[in-house]
Write a structure and sequence with these properties.
It comes from Magallana gigas (Pacific oyster). There is one protein chain. The chain is built from 15 helices and 22 strands. It is an alpha/beta fold and 520 residues long. β7, α4 and β8 form a beta-alpha-beta unit.
Length: 520
């Protein structure tokens, strides 16, 4: 899960009340007539088109290496990343959405469970590990599951945490799952007919491997769908490995926009490593909606071409990247992190501005593993949870970005050894206000109080702080004391306290555990 949207959130927004849903795949796009061709035979007209098909797991193409000759990964005759254009074997599954998952589960329950055949899971992504856990939970013996991990194309694993890597590997071994690392698919059925896969062969840096196969789950690599690529390319939209867009989502057609993992930024930004894939997709969608709302403003003239940019800068997105799932060993996993490039954890810790991390527990131990990374400004920048007990994920996600003082002086309490278990600490009643959906609005209101000038010709608290911070010399105790006196005497302290009490009073039906004036 990415915790952006799910079927429950669609239902809460009553999506089908507001949106006409056409189920199908775009196979062509006619920009002159402004129509999208769906499934090769249905025309859907548009005024403005947003392409956000994303990337999907594709059917992996065997390299056709000769395993009898002992071919290794450095001598492959064909690239493992090329497209597989033949019909898909009937017992091969690429699970990209809930419908694909339902189809795969139905097939497993009706055709595989009673057969005592082997299952192969090919990939080293989070989805691959979750797939292994699902197969085990369905009752398939661990001895009948083979996890084949291709050489990683990234600098770190999908968890980017050695302790979680070790815990998952240990859980796989304990359940009897055979793990083969560093292998690339070479053949199905020894190169014979592949209407149904009965065996799969792999090459590695050393000796090749051949495995019996009753079902094959492919989580090798996500890529742009072949039909989507053809439609984009035939429509003469600029495509450079991905659909090319500018900072405001425009393609080279003013009425066609792109968003999500199918896109990349124009080369003029000199940001080759950055794309929407590095950011929270829900936040990217909100920014896209904000851009498109201008199209429906009757007071603005309609654009005939994308606007000129004075500064070639990509937009900054601040919401966290989130991933979670149930891993082998029945571990509930959650990772909330600052959006950015894929950097190994060891490299991050070597940076002088990394901050500090705080841990309680260990994977599979008592208490369970909970890691919090606090940056140099004492804000929560990373959360990692691994536990065998279900926990309120949505609540813990709310902790991201908060200063540790919000968290009941967490750092000082931790240093005094008053927090043996973060799970228990963040389930206590004091922190329920942090999880309230209006708490972020309250923080914005307090921020506004401190930014706003208290009177004509008077500096705001923020201006006073900037005078101190903008100097190269660090703030000393005298300056800090002076700022606190200004904060108390200017009325800002009283205004913040009043706003806090009104927040608690207004939301008292949700937050009855807090005392308020008149109670004591």
């Amino acid at each position: 899960r990415s915790f952006c949207y799910d079927q429950e959130s669609y239902a809460k927004t009553s999506l089908r009340t507001w949106v006409n849903v056409v189920v199908g795949k775009m196979t062509a796009c006619d920009r002159k007539k402004k129509v999208v061709v769906v499934n090769g035979n249905t025309l859907v007209p548009y005024d403005h088109l947003v392409m956000c098909m994303g990337q999907q797991y594709q059917v992996p193409a065997p390299t056709e290496a000769d395993i009898d000759m002992g071919t290794t990964n450095s001598e492959l005759p064909n690239s493992p990343d090329r497209r597989y254009l033949k019909p898909q074997p009937k017992n091969l599954f690429t699970v990209n959405d809930e419908y694909d998952a339902a189809v795969a589960l139905y097939w497993l329950e009706n055709y595989f469970l009673k057969s005592n055949r082997k299952a192969i899971v090919y990939g080293c992504t989070l989805d691959a590990y979750c797939c292994v856990q699902t197969l085990i939970a369905m009752g398939i013996p661990g001895e009948n599951i083979q996890l084949v991990e291709p050489p990683s194309i990234y600098q770190s694993t999908c968890f980017n945490d050695p302790k979680i890597d070790d815990a998952v590997k240990q859980a796989l071994v304990s359940s009897g799952v055979q793990v083969h690392s560093g292998y690339i698919l070479a053949h199905w059925n020894d190169g014979d007919d592949v209407s149904e896969i009965t065996s799969a062969s792999f090459t590695s840096s050393k000796t090749p491997l051949t495995l019996e196969c009753g079902v094959f789950f492919a989580y090798y690599k996500r890529a742009v769908d072949t039909d989507a690529f053809k439609a984009i390319n035939d429509a003469c939209l600029v495509y450079d490995g991905k659909l090319v867009i500018d900072a405001a989502f425009h393609t080279n057609d003013v009425s066609v926009r792109g968003a999500g993992t199918i896109t990349k930024y124009q080369r003029k930004y000199h940001a080759e490593q950055w794309s929407h894939a590095n950011f929270n997709s829900k936040e990217v969608g909100v920014h896209l909606a904000t851009e498109m709302l201008r199209l429906f403003d009757p007071t603005l003239d309609q654009q005939t071409a994308p606007p000129e940019e004075s500064l070639n800068l990509i937009p900054i997105y601040r919401n966290p990247k989130i991933q979670g799932g149930i891993l082998p060993g029945c571990y509930y996993y959650l990772h909330v992190a600052k959006p950015g490039l894929d950097v190994p954890l060891a490299t991050q810790k070597e940076q002088p501005d990394y901050g500090k991390e705080y841990l309680t527990g260990s994977p599979g131990g008592k208490p369970d593993y909970f890691r919090i990374h606090i940056n140099q400004y004492n804000n929560v920048e990373t959360l990692t949870c691994l536990t065998k007990q279900a926990f309120p994920c949505e609540n813990f996600i709310c902790l991201y970005g908060l200063h540790e003082r919000f968290l009941n002086n967490m750092v000082s309490r931790f240093n005094e050894k008053l927090i043996p278990d973060f799970y228990e600490f963040f389930r206590e009643t004091w922190c329920l206000a942090l999880y309230h959906d209006r708490f972020s609005d309250f923080r914005d209101e307090v921020r506004e109080l401190l930014v706003t000038s208290p009177g004509v010709g008077m500096d705001s608290i923020e201006d006073k702080v900037r005078e101190v911070v903008d100097e190269d010399v660090p703030m000393n105790d005298a300056q800090k004391k002076q700022l606190l006196e200004i904060y108390a005497s200017s009325g800002s302290k009283r205004a913040v306290e009043t706003r806090l009490l009104s927040f608690l009073s207004y939301n008292y039906y949700h937050l009855p555990m807090y005392a308020k004036p008149g109670m004591v």
